[in-house]
Amino acid sequence: MSTTGYNSQNGAGGQPYANGPSQNPLLVPPSGAGYNIGTQPLYSNQMPAKAPLSTGPGPYNPGSYQMTPPVSSYQGPGQASLTRPPMGPVQPAPFRPAGPMAPQSQNSTPPPMPSAAPYAPQPTWPYGAPPVSVSSPPVPTMGNHVTPVPGPVPNRHSPSPYGAGHTPPLHHGASLPPGPVSLPASSATSSYTYQGAGQVPTPGEASQINSFDHLEMGTKGMVGPPPPQTGLAGRPTGQSYPSLPPGYANMVPSASPLQSPKPPYSPAHQPYQQPQANPAQLSPSLAALSLQSQSPETLRAVNLLQERNILPPGPVTPPTPCLPQDLQKLNCNPEVFRSTLANIPQTQSLLNKAKLPLGLLLHPFKDLSQLPVVTSSTIVRCRSCRTYINPFVSFLDQRRWKCNLCYRVNDVPEEFMYNPVSRSYGEPHKRPEVQNPTIEFIAPSEYMLRPPQPAVYLFVLDVSHNAVETGYLDVVCQSLLDNLSSLPGDTRTKIGFITFDSTIHFYNLQEGLSQPQMLIVSDIDDIFIPTPDSLLVNLNDCKELVQDLLKGLPQMFNKTMETQSALGPALQAAFKLLSPTGGRASIFQTQLPTLGVGALKSREDPNQRASLKDIQHLSPATDFYKKLALDCSGQQVAVDLFLLSGQYCDLASLGCISRYSAGSVYYYPSYHHQHNLAEVERFQKDLKRYLTRKIGFEAVMRIRCTKGLSIHTFHGNFFVRSTDLLSLPNVNPDAGFAVQMSIEENLMDLQAVSFQAALLYTSSKGERRIRVHTMCLPVVNSMADIFAGADVQAITGLLASMAVDRSVSASLSDARDALTNAAVDSLTAYRSSVLTIQQPGLLAPSCLRLFPLYILALLKQKAFRTGTSTRLDDRVFAMFQLKYQPLSYLVLMIHPALYRVDDLTDEGALNINERTVPQPKVLQLSVEKLNREGAFLMDAGSVMLLWMGRNCNPSFLSQVLGVPSYAAVPQNMNQLPELDTAESVRTRAFVGWLREQRPFFPVLHIVREESPLKAAFMQNMVEDRTESALSYYEYLLHLQQQTSK
Ligand SMILES: [Zn+2]
């Protein structure tokens, strides 16, 4: 009857959803939820709202496609002898492409990008306000702060086929009688045909709709000032058909006619009507929202100086917003979407008074065990602010719903009257969109600028002498061989390879060749693509050639003496190769780039590592990598960097290539195929996850919030295209994001506010999909209620990202001071504004009792620590991680969980699938908790350390480790043997259960007292004093002194 279909699926493949969800299936903890080791961001991504980008795919060598003689490609004599041609005369001559070339875009050198947001150093953060003097142009009106247009009215928006945000003319909804109507099949769809629907625009048509911005259909086309004219460099988004002329983006009228009307549905007049017909069944009404105070427990005053044992025995749970239960039941899973404050202050001044940061933490593409997926010809969205219909809208009656972000009243489209879950008519409030805070839509064609791109994977491999020495090529090639058929994709999937040392090597894998053909380009100052059509090939059609190449590649460079690294030119080649389609480039690099563009020099002086208070060189040495990343972003190319090097590689510079192209960074500082087997195992497991995890292409994400709130700073790996739109050429399930918010208008009239994140992407199967998460939080007006909803983990996570930015824009010491001040200020505010009875000591509300501990742990983190020798790349990598990891793994990285495991029992154990999983208590991170007779497991997220005392319980040694004595424990042990003893079963069940909760595989190291890894274990003992850092108790005394000033 209608085109609506509905099923539930786990992200990879769908199963028909038979009975329809009545509850949020996402609240069921996913089995393989996820995060992947070592993916991390760096620094703030505060970019000019419309940074002038360079144009065209080849900005670095404008005019580099010089007409030159054809390449003399090297035809490998056979698989066994597929080696490099001798250097010198056999080198191919510069390539002259046959046929007409696409004209190069303007020879415009992009102006220098501001490298980081230079705001004035301040010891504390102005939480609510946007950072001062960010070097971006004036920020246009937030898309989600639309002044509501009176409705229902005819579409008064711009007549652009797309620009108007696709507002369909909803003629029918309001005029049809309420109640069940038998709906002829044709009317369900015909009501919604409107201009632009169902067609992919031709490039000519598309000249008006340059970007996915309009596809996600923000309000940019309807309200807000136009993007600034950027002249020749004015391809503001770069998201388009490559063939489109520059400058087409500036299509928004300069004056917005839609900003003036007064909202007829101003919040003050909203009685949150219940529908007459069947009130109980319509979506939950906010009328029931009552702001009873939180349970006293979260506000219970804890004297930190007296209560030593403040860790909960299990995981720290986020606070529950004080919403009515029926609304809370529908709220988004906090692992996907949460706020630093579960109760939103009514005004900015109240927020300022509380001295707590307000922000959102997201894990938008997280692997979910159940994800409702809707196929519908009409995706119902607010006509005014483009919010997707969600569980927190209100239905005025069966035919009208009111937006919970802008309060506009919208018609219920005819098709929405049918509920595919119950297969009944007239129950719009029971539609899956209104029952699930997280939902995915299969997007119709108007959400596409071009046919969805295929999955395209390009591997770029360092084959210099140094790289061959590490032995990593074997692992990469073997992993690819093992997982070739598991790469996400379909029959259109493409794959290609580039290797590089001082020259760039391409591989012709075209169908019909008897063996892979290597093509060497030695002119690295003028990179060109020798045979553009045969280097990225269809994986299905050319699988055998690909396999041949992967089998031969590790040996091909065995004897190389080439020590140079032309990474920059290799990246340019990758960009050119991927530009026509978009896709993913995976870069494997083992040393500092030394040749061509992007060459770097060592900036680290190891002798000064520990002595300098302020760390230099946290920002990039060149803007080459960032500029190239922005070009990549414009062409839907993401670059992931795998750095395997024990030597300084200037990650601060190299990392920009991933950070701004929405890629990931992986780092293996001590990788060696023989000397460090644990690292090899970690690399193997990471690669398996990396190659097989879900991937979304050509993605954008927009976060909307209720009018009155404003989002101002984003953290993560992406490029901020417009004020609130993140460009994500790739999105992966292990990426986290954070945003800071301020309260721009008094929220006095509101009882609750909502936040919605919409991620539009192309699946590896070529479907355009939109994943939408909606969260609703109450508005409160007392300091007590604000503090009662403080989410200590989310607050710490956001502060960590802010501190990374501060380290780069100001200094490390400034960032450290700001972290401590964050704790001092909030505890002072609590003492003066919430506590009614003053008592001595350092008092924190129970919900923030871990705050000083987490802040101290952050200060001792590699990213922020001082006084200890910390390699610059290690520090920068930790900073990446802090900005990019989803919160749950971030917390383990900052404050690992410590358990005693030599005396595990079944008492209080979980029973999962007939497996008994012991649940030992989480211990404080202090050597006080260790003893020589025990064995202790430290779970730091991406790594687990099992430390054993010298007099370790002999039964543990024999029953779990299978060794007769302590001395017999092998030095590099990183597996628990499978022994047939109760102790072994228990220990493995526990470690296995911890591992199952993340999608990557944390490597386990067994650490003896004299093991070199003992230092790593002890460094995580954050409650203890070190030569250069205070103990937890000393830190508390310091805070107490500061709060009582
Ligand atoms: Zn709206």
What is the element layout, followed by pairings?
Layout (H helix, E strand, L loop, with lengths): L4 E5 L4 E3 L168 H6 L12 H4 L5 H5 L79 H4 L1 E3 L21 H5 L7 E3 L4 E2 L2 H7 L4 E4 L8 E5 L18 E4 L2 E3 L6 E3 L6 E2 L4 E2 L6 H4 L2 E5 L13 E7 L2 H6 L1 H12 L10 E7 L3 E5 L8 E5 L15 E2 L4 H14 L10 H12 L4 E7 L34 H11 L2 E8 L6 H4 L1 H4 L5 E4 L8 H16 L3 E10 L3 E7 L3 E4 L2 E7 L5 E7 L8 E12 L4 E13 L2 H6 L3 H18 L2 H22 L9 E3 L5 H9 L12 H13 L2 H8 L2 E4 L9 E3 L2 E3 L17 E5 L3 E6 L5 H8 L20 H15 L6 E5 L6 H6 L12 H12 L2
Parallel strand pairs: 5-28, 7-13, 14-15, 14-19, 19-20, 20-21, 34-35
Antiparallel strand pairs: 1-2, 1-7, 3-29, 4-6, 6-26, 8-9, 9-10, 11-12, 13-28, 15-16, 15-18, 16-17, 22-25, 22-27, 23-26, 24-25, 27-28, 30-33, 31-32, 33-34
Helix pairs in contact: 9-10, 9-15, 11-12, 17-18, 17-19, 17-20, 17-21, 18-19, 18-25, 22-23
The structure holds zinc ion.
Question: What report would you give on this structure?
Answer:
There is one protein chain. Among the domains are: 325-449 and 697-790, beta-sandwich domain of Sec23/24 (Immunoglobulin-like); 456-598 and 618-693, Rossmann fold, CATH 3.40.50; 791-895 and 1026-1044, Sec23/Sec24 helical domain (Four Helix Bundle (Hemerythrin (Met), subunit A)); 896-1021, 3-Layer(aba) Sandwich (Severin), CATH 3.40.20. The protein contains 25 helices and 35 strands. The strands form 8 sheets. Strands 1, 2, 5, 7, 13, 22, 24, 25, 27 and 28 form a 10-stranded mixed beta sheet that branches. Zinc ion is lined by residues 382, 384-385, 387, 403, 405-406, 408.
